[in-house]
Amino acid sequence: MTTRSARRTVRAARSAGLVALAAAAAFSLTACGGSKDAAAGPKVTVAAAHATGGVGVPGGTGAGGGESPTGTRNETPVSSRTGASAGTAKGSSPVRTQTLPDGSKAEIYRLGAQHYRAKIVNRGSVLATLEANGRDAGLDGNDMFIVLTLDGRVHAWLGGGHQGPGTFRLAGGWTAEVTKLGELRYRARIIGHDGVAATMQANQHDTGLDANGIFIVLSNGGVISAHA
Predict the structure, then answer these.
(1) Is 119 within 8 Å of 97 (Cβ atoms)?
(2) Contact 101, 154 (CB under 8 A)
(3) Disulfide: which of 63, 75, 87, 106 matches 81 by Cβ 3.0-4.6 Å?
(4) pTM above 0.85?
(5) Are 49 and 149 in contact (CB under 8 A)?
(6) Residue 3 — left, alpha, or beta (φ > 0 → left; ψ -120 to 50 → alpha)?
(7) CA contacts within 13 A on the Cβ side of 53
(8) Neighbours of 168 (CB within 10 A)
(9) Where are the domains of the chain?
Protein backbone atom coordinates (compact mmCIF):
# COMPACT_ATOMS: atom_id res chain seq x y z
CA MET A 1 0.00 0.00 0.00
CA THR A 2 2.77 2.45 0.91
CA THR A 3 4.70 1.69 -2.28
CA ARG A 4 1.60 2.12 -4.45
CA SER A 5 0.73 5.41 -2.79
CA ALA A 6 4.26 6.66 -3.31
CA ARG A 7 4.11 5.71 -6.98
CA ARG A 8 0.77 7.46 -7.39
CA THR A 9 2.21 10.56 -5.71
CA VAL A 10 5.21 10.59 -8.06
CA ARG A 11 2.97 10.12 -11.09
CA ALA A 12 0.66 12.91 -9.96
CA ALA A 13 3.56 15.28 -9.39
CA ARG A 14 4.90 14.49 -12.84
CA SER A 15 1.53 14.95 -14.46
CA ALA A 16 1.02 18.25 -12.82
CA GLY A 17 4.07 19.40 -14.78
CA LEU A 18 4.20 22.19 -17.31
CA VAL A 19 2.17 24.62 -15.30
CA ALA A 20 4.83 26.56 -13.48
CA LEU A 21 8.59 26.52 -13.65
CA ALA A 22 11.13 27.11 -10.97
CA ALA A 23 10.86 30.58 -9.51
CA ALA A 24 14.30 31.41 -10.80
CA ALA A 25 13.24 31.04 -14.40
CA ALA A 26 9.52 31.64 -14.05
CA PHE A 27 8.59 29.25 -16.77
CA SER A 28 8.09 25.57 -17.48
CA LEU A 29 8.23 23.63 -20.68
CA THR A 30 6.91 20.63 -22.55
CA ALA A 31 7.78 19.09 -25.77
CA CYS A 32 6.10 17.59 -28.62
CA GLY A 33 5.95 15.95 -31.95
CA GLY A 34 5.54 17.58 -35.28
CA SER A 35 6.63 17.41 -38.85
CA LYS A 36 7.50 19.74 -41.70
CA ASP A 37 4.85 20.49 -44.27
CA ALA A 38 4.37 22.84 -47.13
CA ALA A 39 1.13 24.69 -47.51
CA ALA A 40 0.46 22.69 -50.62
CA GLY A 41 1.98 19.54 -49.23
CA PRO A 42 0.20 16.42 -48.07
CA LYS A 43 -1.78 16.43 -44.86
CA VAL A 44 0.42 15.54 -41.95
CA THR A 45 -0.66 14.44 -38.51
CA VAL A 46 1.58 15.71 -35.75
CA ALA A 47 1.81 13.62 -32.63
CA ALA A 48 1.51 15.17 -29.21
CA ALA A 49 4.62 16.64 -27.81
CA HIS A 50 6.28 15.07 -24.85
CA ALA A 51 8.16 16.81 -22.13
CA THR A 52 9.03 16.35 -18.55
CA GLY A 53 9.34 18.89 -15.84
CA GLY A 54 12.58 20.29 -14.64
CA VAL A 55 14.09 19.83 -11.23
CA GLY A 56 11.79 21.19 -8.58
CA VAL A 57 9.16 22.12 -11.11
CA PRO A 58 5.58 21.28 -10.25
CA GLY A 59 4.66 20.29 -13.74
CA GLY A 60 5.48 20.16 -17.38
CA THR A 61 4.94 18.29 -20.57
CA GLY A 62 7.42 17.15 -22.98
CA ALA A 63 8.82 14.82 -25.39
CA GLY A 64 9.80 12.30 -22.96
CA GLY A 65 8.12 10.03 -20.61
CA GLY A 66 7.04 13.03 -18.58
CA GLU A 67 3.32 13.55 -18.61
CA SER A 68 1.94 16.70 -17.25
CA PRO A 69 -1.75 16.95 -17.03
CA THR A 70 -2.05 20.59 -16.26
CA GLY A 71 -4.47 22.55 -18.30
CA THR A 72 -2.58 25.77 -18.33
CA ARG A 73 0.03 27.01 -20.75
CA ASN A 74 2.72 25.34 -18.96
CA GLU A 75 5.28 23.15 -20.00
CA THR A 76 7.90 21.24 -18.55
CA PRO A 77 10.61 19.31 -20.19
CA VAL A 78 10.64 16.31 -22.16
CA SER A 79 12.89 14.37 -19.92
CA SER A 80 10.94 11.18 -19.92
CA ARG A 81 10.68 10.69 -23.58
CA THR A 82 14.39 10.27 -24.07
CA GLY A 83 15.26 7.38 -26.32
CA ALA A 84 18.94 7.33 -25.47
CA SER A 85 20.51 7.58 -22.09
CA ALA A 86 21.99 10.95 -21.21
CA GLY A 87 25.15 9.12 -20.32
CA THR A 88 25.71 7.69 -23.78
CA ALA A 89 28.68 8.83 -25.82
CA LYS A 90 26.58 10.71 -28.36
CA GLY A 91 24.49 12.62 -25.85
CA SER A 92 27.09 13.20 -23.16
CA SER A 93 27.97 16.76 -24.14
CA PRO A 94 26.07 19.45 -26.06
CA VAL A 95 26.82 20.10 -29.70
CA ARG A 96 25.65 23.69 -29.25
CA THR A 97 24.37 26.11 -26.62
CA GLN A 98 21.85 28.78 -27.54
CA THR A 99 20.55 31.76 -25.53
CA LEU A 100 16.74 32.02 -25.40
CA PRO A 101 14.62 35.21 -25.33
CA ASP A 102 14.14 35.12 -21.54
CA GLY A 103 17.88 34.80 -20.87
CA SER A 104 17.89 31.07 -20.19
CA LYS A 105 19.94 28.74 -22.39
CA ALA A 106 19.19 25.69 -24.49
CA GLU A 107 21.86 23.00 -24.42
CA ILE A 108 21.38 20.88 -27.57
CA TYR A 109 22.52 17.25 -27.60
CA ARG A 110 22.65 14.94 -30.61
CA LEU A 111 21.47 11.44 -29.71
CA GLY A 112 21.29 10.01 -33.22
CA ALA A 113 19.95 10.60 -36.73
CA GLN A 114 16.99 13.01 -36.46
CA HIS A 115 17.17 12.59 -32.70
CA TYR A 116 18.05 15.60 -30.54
CA ARG A 117 17.48 16.69 -26.98
CA ALA A 118 17.44 20.28 -25.70
CA LYS A 119 17.86 21.03 -22.01
CA ILE A 120 16.55 24.42 -20.92
CA VAL A 121 18.95 25.70 -18.28
CA ASN A 122 18.92 28.78 -16.06
CA ARG A 123 21.66 29.48 -13.52
CA GLY A 124 22.76 25.88 -13.49
CA SER A 125 19.27 24.40 -13.03
CA VAL A 126 17.58 22.32 -15.74
CA LEU A 127 14.08 23.74 -16.08
CA ALA A 128 12.85 21.57 -18.92
CA THR A 129 13.91 19.07 -21.54
CA LEU A 130 12.59 18.77 -25.08
CA GLU A 131 13.28 15.76 -27.28
CA ALA A 132 12.77 15.53 -31.02
CA ASN A 133 13.01 11.94 -32.24
CA GLY A 134 12.05 11.66 -35.90
CA ARG A 135 9.66 14.61 -35.51
CA ASP A 136 9.71 18.16 -34.19
CA ALA A 137 8.93 18.92 -30.55
CA GLY A 138 7.34 22.00 -29.00
CA LEU A 139 6.67 23.64 -25.71
CA ASP A 140 4.73 26.55 -24.21
CA GLY A 141 6.80 27.66 -21.24
CA ASN A 142 4.52 30.24 -19.67
CA ASP A 143 4.29 32.36 -22.81
CA MET A 144 7.78 31.55 -24.10
CA PHE A 145 7.31 29.15 -26.98
CA ILE A 146 10.03 26.76 -28.10
CA VAL A 147 10.32 24.41 -31.07
CA LEU A 148 13.11 21.82 -31.33
CA THR A 149 13.31 20.45 -34.86
CA LEU A 150 14.27 16.91 -35.78
CA ASP A 151 17.56 18.26 -37.22
CA GLY A 152 18.54 19.90 -33.92
CA ARG A 153 17.55 23.54 -34.46
CA VAL A 154 15.91 25.52 -31.65
CA HIS A 155 13.56 28.42 -32.32
CA ALA A 156 12.05 30.36 -29.40
CA TRP A 157 9.93 33.48 -29.03
CA LEU A 158 7.86 35.37 -26.48
CA GLY A 159 4.09 35.96 -26.64
CA GLY A 160 1.72 35.91 -29.56
CA GLY A 161 -0.43 33.08 -28.23
CA HIS A 162 -4.13 32.63 -29.08
CA GLN A 163 -6.39 30.77 -26.67
CA GLY A 164 -8.47 28.11 -28.39
CA PRO A 165 -10.89 26.82 -29.33
CA GLY A 166 -11.31 29.12 -32.31
CA THR A 167 -9.90 30.09 -35.70
CA PHE A 168 -6.77 32.24 -35.76
CA ARG A 169 -4.46 33.85 -38.31
CA LEU A 170 -0.85 32.86 -37.77
CA ALA A 171 2.50 34.13 -39.00
CA GLY A 172 3.42 33.19 -42.55
CA GLY A 173 -0.15 33.36 -43.83
CA TRP A 174 -1.27 30.18 -42.08
CA THR A 175 -4.68 29.79 -40.45
CA ALA A 176 -5.21 27.54 -37.44
CA GLU A 177 -8.54 25.97 -36.54
CA VAL A 178 -8.21 24.92 -32.90
CA THR A 179 -10.72 22.42 -31.50
CA LYS A 180 -11.05 21.13 -27.94
CA LEU A 181 -11.30 17.34 -27.85
CA GLY A 182 -11.32 16.85 -24.09
CA GLU A 183 -9.39 17.59 -20.90
CA LEU A 184 -5.90 18.71 -21.93
CA ARG A 185 -6.62 17.55 -25.49
CA TYR A 186 -6.68 19.97 -28.42
CA ARG A 187 -6.36 19.66 -32.18
CA ALA A 188 -5.19 22.36 -34.61
CA ARG A 189 -5.68 22.12 -38.35
CA ILE A 190 -3.02 24.24 -40.05
CA ILE A 191 -4.50 25.61 -43.28
CA GLY A 192 -2.69 27.29 -46.17
CA HIS A 193 -3.81 28.65 -49.52
CA ASP A 194 -4.21 25.13 -50.88
CA GLY A 195 -6.08 23.64 -47.95
CA VAL A 196 -5.12 21.72 -44.81
CA ALA A 197 -1.35 21.21 -44.72
CA ALA A 198 -0.96 19.66 -41.27
CA THR A 199 -2.87 18.54 -38.22
CA MET A 200 -1.37 19.03 -34.76
CA GLN A 201 -2.67 17.23 -31.70
CA ALA A 202 -1.78 18.04 -28.09
CA ASN A 203 -2.91 15.19 -25.85
CA GLN A 204 -1.72 16.05 -22.32
CA HIS A 205 1.51 17.26 -23.93
CA ASP A 206 2.40 20.31 -25.96
CA THR A 207 3.36 19.80 -29.57
CA GLY A 208 5.46 21.76 -32.05
CA LEU A 209 5.96 22.04 -35.79
CA ASP A 210 8.29 23.63 -38.32
CA ALA A 211 5.96 24.54 -41.20
CA ASN A 212 8.46 25.60 -43.86
CA GLY A 213 10.23 28.09 -41.62
CA ILE A 214 7.14 29.10 -39.64
CA PHE A 215 7.38 27.58 -36.17
CA ILE A 216 4.14 26.65 -34.42
CA VAL A 217 3.42 25.45 -30.88
CA LEU A 218 0.09 24.06 -29.67
CA SER A 219 -0.18 23.57 -25.91
CA ASN A 220 -2.27 21.02 -24.05
CA GLY A 221 -4.24 23.99 -22.71
CA GLY A 222 -5.32 25.02 -26.22
CA VAL A 223 -2.91 27.94 -26.72
CA ILE A 224 -1.42 28.23 -30.20
CA SER A 225 1.38 30.55 -31.30
CA ALA A 226 3.51 30.87 -34.44
CA HIS A 227 6.67 32.75 -35.31
CA ALA A 228 8.90 33.12 -38.34
Answers:
(1) no
(2) no
(3) 63
(4) no
(5) no
(6) alpha
(7) 27
(8) 17
(9) 2-227
